Write the C-alpha cells for this entry.
Amino acid sequence: MSLRVSELKVYYRTLKGEVRALDGLSFGLADGEILGLVGESGCGKSTLGKSLIRLDGRMRHAGGTVVLDGEELPIADDRRMNDYRFHQVSLIPQYAMSALNPTRKIRRMVTELLRSRGVTLDTAELESRMSQVGLPREVLDRYPIELSGGMKQRMVMVVSTLLDPSLLIADEVTSALDVSTQKAVARALLGFRDSGYVKSMIFVTHDLALTHHIADTIMVMYAGRLAEKAPADVIVKAPRHPYTRLLLDSLPEVGVRHTDRRLTGIAGSPPSLLDPPAGCRFRDRCPIAGEECAEDPPVAEVAAGHYVACWKA
Amino acid sequence: MTALQEVAPRERAGVRREALYFAVRNGKLVTGFGIVLALLLLGLIVPVLLGGNPNEYGTRPMSPPSAEHWFGTTTFGQDIFLQFGHGLRSTFAVGAIGGGIAAAIGMLVGFVAGYRGGLVDEILNMLTNIVLVIPTLAVLLIINAYLGIRSVSVQGLFIGLTSWPWAARAIRAQTFSLRTREFVDLARMSGAGTWRIITREIAPNMSSYLFMTFILLFGGSILIASSLDFIGLGPTEGVSLGLMLQNANQWSALQLGLWWWFVPPGAAITAIVGALYVANVGLDEVFNPKLRET
Amino acid sequence: MMLKLDDVTKEFRIGAFGGKSVTAVRNVSFDLGPGEVVSLIGESGSGKSTIGRMILGLNPVSGGSITFEGRPVRAGKEYYRHVQGIFQDPFSSFNPVFKADRVFGLIKDTYYRTVPGEEWARRVGDSLRDVRLDPGQVLGKYPHQLSGGQLQRLLIARALLLDIKLLVADEITSMLDASTRIDVLNLLADLKARGLGVLYITHDLSLGNYLAERTVVLRRGSVVELGPTERVFGDPLHPYTRELLAAVPRLHQEWADATPVDACLYHARGGTGGLMEAGPGHFVACAGLGTCP
C-alpha cells in the first residue's frame, strides 16, 4: 500500500465558522494504482489534493493521518513538508498554464526550479520524457507564451514528475483544455505511470467519463466524505451508492437525445459544510432514504475493493 | 409570496436604503466622516463666531495657547485659531473645487475611453498622456505667476484642470475590465444605453474606487495648493492652511519653538486626508455585499 | 427562416489604431427556425462565441449579413424583445453589487414600465416556476448567495418575461455541476417545445447531441460540417469532426482513435468550392489534406 489516508479531517476557517471540507476520509492507494477522484464542486476533492501537498493559510488539519510508503506525512507542518514535496509528492495544478513564469525561457526555469530543490538537471532525461509526451526539445528554448495550453500542461507534468515522486496529484488538469488536447494529456499521464515515473496517482476531476478511461479505481465523494470507491468498471457498470447511480444517470453521452431518453438531474443541493446535518449527508436528495439514514452510514466493503457508505447498498 | 411582492418596485430605493443601513453601522465610515465633518464645521463656525480679520496684527505676539487665544498667536500677534478657521474654509474649498473638477473630468474621460474603446479610447488616451507628462507644478507656477491668482476658487480650478489624468487612467483600466463582464452585455440586452450602463452598472461596481479617487484628488489638491501657497503663489486674499505653514516656516516658528503655529494646520491637513482614507475603507465594506457579512 | 446567417465574417482589429487584424469568423452561413435547436460546436478559438455575440448584436459583423425575420440585426429595444442571450459564467452575468432579481427590474424598466407592481410580481413568479425555481428561495438574494444552476435559471426566466423567439445559449452549462447541468438542458428542450428557437453554443459534443436537431461544427472560424445531428454524429464526413468525436470520453466505450481519412470526402464526392451537400441537409467542407487539389 503506497498511500494510506485515515480519518482525515481538514477544515477551512471562514468568518462564519469552520467549513468541514474533509470530514473523516479514509482510503488506501496501492503501488501503481491510479485513483480517479470525482464529485461535484464543494465535495472536498480539491481539498484532499491540496492537503496532501500543502495546506494553505485558511486550512486547518483537524485530525487523521496520511501515511506514504510507510512514513507519516507531516501535512500540518508547512516547513517539514518541504522535504516531501516534489521528491515524494507532486501536484499538477488546474491552471498549470499560469504556473509558468512568463519572463523565463522554459530551460532556465526548469534549471532554477531543480536547483532550488538541490538537484542538478539531467537534460537527456528531461528531453526523453518530453518526447514521450510529444513535446519537441525546442520547447525548452521557448517562452511559455509561445506554447499552447495543452503543451504548457504537458510541460508542467514533465517537470513536476522529474524527480520520480511516489505520489502524483493531478488536480482538474484537463478541465480547461479542448477535447482533443484533453485526450493527449490524459494519455501522457497514463504513460508516466506505466514508465514508473510516478508510483501512484490521484486524478481529481468532475468528469466521470474521462476518469473512467484513466483510473483503475474511482472514488466518489459527497459533502466531504467518501460515498463509494470501487474499481473503475464497477463504479460505471454496477454502482451501489444512490448518489453514484443518479450521477451516472444525469450524464448525457454522445448518442443520447432528449427526445429518446430524457435524463434527469439530482434535485436539491449538497448540505452546507459549515454545520453539516447529522446522519447521511445525501439523505435530503436521496430517493431511497429511510429511517436508518438519520445515523451516519459506515463505509462498508460490500465486495473485494468495493466500499460504499450507504445503509441501503 | 411576501418576498415576491416586494421584488421589482422596491428595487432602486431598496439598494440605497440598505446601503444607508450598513453605512451608519460601519465604525470606520462613521469615524472618518465624523472627523472631516467636525473640521468642516469648525471652519464654518469659527470665523463667524470670532469675527474680525484673520491677518490683523495683534498686541500680544508669540503667546502660547491661552483662554484668550485658544491656539496662541503668531510673531505678529495674529490669532491662530481665527486663522485656522479661515484656513480650513479655503482648504476645503480648494480641495472640493480642485478634487471635484479633476474627478469629473477624470471620470468622464476614463468611463468613455474604457467603455467605448477603439478610436475614441486611442484619442482620449493620447490626450490623457499629454496632460500627464506636462510638469503640472511648473505649469501652475507659470500660470499663477502670469495671471496672478487672487482667489481660492481660481486656484482650485487650475489645479482641477491639471490633475485629472491619472484618475482617468485608473478609471479607464477599471472600466475596461468591467465592460467585458457579462452583466454589461445583459444590461445592453435589457435595452440600456451607454450612459445608463456606465452610471447604473459599471460605476456602482467601483463606487468605493471612485470615492477613493475623489479623496486622493481632494487631498492632492490640498497639497498642491499648500505647495503653491508655500512658495508665495497662493491667493493673495485670505488665509489657507498652506499659507499658515508657509508663514510659520518663513518666520522660523520651528526654531523659535512656536509649535502652536505650525502644528494645527499640519495636523488638520493630515487629519482631513487620513480620515477620508479611513472612511473609504468603511465605504468599501458598505458597498461590497461580500465583505458585509462579517 | 427566422434567423439566417449569410457568409458572415468577423475581423478584429488589434494594435495601435487598429493596424492589424485577425479573422475570427470566416464565411459562416446557417439558419435556424422557430422551435428548432441548433448546436454550434467548436473548441476554443473556433469563433463560436463571436458568432453568438454577433447574432445578439453585441459585436458588429465585418462581412456578410445576419437577418432575423428578414431584417438585418439592429441591436436595440425592439430586437431584444425577441432575441436574448445567456452566457457561460453565471456569476459574471449578475452585477455583484445588486441583488440577483434586479435582472427582472431592468426588463421592467425598459419594456413593462406601465405594468402595475402586483401584476409584474405575478409574472415574475410564474416565469420562475416555469424554470422550476421557488420564488421564495431566489428573490431578494445576492448573486453570491445562489448557486450557478439557480442563476442560469434566473436568466432563462428573465428571457421568458419577454416576447422571446430566439435564445442564444453560450456554454451556459459548462460551469455547472453534472447533477444540475442536465436540468438546465432539459429546460432548453422545453423552450423548444414552446416554439422558441435555441442556438446552443458548446464545446461539449455530448451536450450538443442531447439537445439539437441540427449541428454546426466550427473550426478556426469556418464551418467544417453542418447537418442533422444524427448525420453529423452518426456519419461524420470531415476528419476534424471524426477526431472530435473520437476524443470525447464515453462511459461504456473505449477511447478509440479516429478512423483515418485517406482521401478528402469533399473532393471524392465532387465538391467544388464552398460547402458540399453530401446528403439531405448534410454539408461538409474540404478537409484540406495534402492530396486535395
User: Anything to note?
Assistant: Chain A has a mean pLDDT of 89.
